[in-house]
Amino acid sequence: MVATNDRLNVSLSLSKHEQLYRQMFEKNQAIKLIIDPAQGRILEANEAALRFYGYDKATFVGMLITELNTLTEEEVKQEMLLAKKEARVFHNFRHRLASGDIRDVEVYSGPITVEDKTFLYSIILDVTRRKKAEQALLETEQRQRDLLNNTSSVIYTKDLSGHYLSINRAYELCFDVSESEIQGKTDFDLFPEEVARKFRRNDLKAINLNQPVESEETVLTANKRQVFLSVKFPLKNARGEIYAVCGISTDITQRKLAEEKIQHQAHYDALTRLPNRFLALERLAQMLNEAQRSGHQVAVLFIDLDDFKKINDSLGHEVGDKVLVEAAGRLQGVIRQVDVVGRLGGDEFIILLGGLSGGVDAKAIVEKMLQQFHRAFYIDSRELILTATAGIAVYPEDGRDSSTLLRNADMAMYQAKALGRNTYSYFNEKMNRDVSRRLELEQAIRGALQRQEFEVVYQVQVKVNSGEIIGAEALLRWYNPKLGQVSPVEFIPIAEQTGLIIDIGQFVLTQALSVLASWQQRHHRALKMSVNLSPRQFRDIKLVDMIEQALIQAGVAANCLELEITEGVLMSGHSYIKKTLSALSVLGIYLSMDDFGTGYSSLNYLRQYPFDVLKIDRSFVQGITTESTDRKLVNAAIAMAHGLNLTVVAEGVETQEQLHLLKSLNCDFAQGYLLGKPCRAKQLLVLELMPL
Q1: Low-confidence stretches of the chain (pLDDT beneath 50)
Q2: Domain spanning 443-685 has what CATH number?
Q3: Who has the most CB within 10 Å: 80, 118, 170, 429?
């Protein structure tokens, strides 16, 4: 009886376990099949399998597994071998549903034994979405690889200790190294130590600051020098931890060479290779600072070649240029190592003598300099006799700043000219008293505006490629009944120094905008007007409001007004300059850097201030057809400006040859006597905009 009960309990227990396992098979949400391995026929399927494949049980059970699989029997074998080789416990297949849809599945299979018979169980996972996501990821990664390998920038990643992880194709081509060769190496394995140290400092800066870092990096190799603009930034994992640094480096070697050429031209005279006016005055300022500390004196010698104009007029500029080069060499031969010789322009030179204990110390040098000109100049088999005249101003007696010393040395030179030339003269206070012209001008200019002695004239600006007039520049003229026609070169500095330029500038702007409004109305075109702003006007806190009100009063759009600013305005670096320019730019007014290339230019200004237009000085334009240096510089300036999205205007165009060359260099606009002389408002209004 006990044995019978035990058997009954065992039977009940087995029945419960059978129900349990069957429910685990049938009710499980995973797709499960029991397959006869001998025939490949489905013997059992759970509800999840029926729902997934879309069959009823009567149809599904008994189907061959090959009816589901899209692969051939041979392909199934290959997949199984591949899984075995990779030690995978699953196989990848594509199964066809009752609807005809194809799904990607992973099949986990294994043997089971029932009553000495072996069957195959399969657990099937629908991985269609995952496969699509993986494919999309692969395609995205491929696109990224294609993008990285087709960009001209050098791109690379390094781990936190500086070892390379990856590089793009541009890096391989630039440094002739493959990714496999560079992986695991550092910059110290690849570049000179000084270069590698700079790279490492910039890498660590990006890592430590946890932000992008931009810098210029120079790479010196055995046969070349390359300059890169590099941006380096940290790479982070999903937890926000920095695990690497990425660098994107753009080769700016050619741009730097062009900038260096422009910088050199901005500081050195192209003909004589001497420091130009800007650099000479900069050196003078340095000497004055040193003299303030040491108590020594500084002498400024202003030198002019006597009757040089006759050489140019009679023998031509080519001979004149050779004379200037020879003269520059002779001047350099008389100075000490601490002194400076510069060319101010034309036949005017400057010598700066530092560390003097008395103005008389300059006497020996200036007399030695004059003796150098007692020797004949031999130019192209010609013997030329040339003399020089010099004026001397001494710090601190004759001035305490560069401009005053230069001006006083200039006056002393003219005094020496009056004494008979081929000599020198020291500045004295009597010279100031004798400058009656300046005093007369200063007196006459006061009230000139009220007496209506000023007039605004206009010089047209045209499109280089079509000759169409697109605007004009407003120019100020002054006629005084007593003095006659006075040059702006004379009266503008006086107006600037006396502060009269504020009212005069407002007069010019108001007149110019009024004429522009009439001009636009006549032609129904958005013609432009350029107006010059002086340094003194920028110190007027009402400048921006005045300009805005003038635009409103004239009914002219802000983007039709272009304000020309000389680089001298920007040299002070005062914060109000940038603030004013920014405010004008926000109004929509176009800003033009005037006289670019005259020796005061700084590429840094183009980066600091919101300029829209770059105006190339007439001195460069005049030389583009005869001087390769001028032509190359103008070409570089135009290319640089266009690279910065600036419009280029060339001034002083006087010949068709100059205009044709500017057109070939892709210059945008031009003005000059060839295109139109300054004219009165009435004449401007009736001009045809298109060339005949």
Answers
A1: 2, 8, 10-12, 14, 599-600
A2: 3.20.20.450
A3: 170
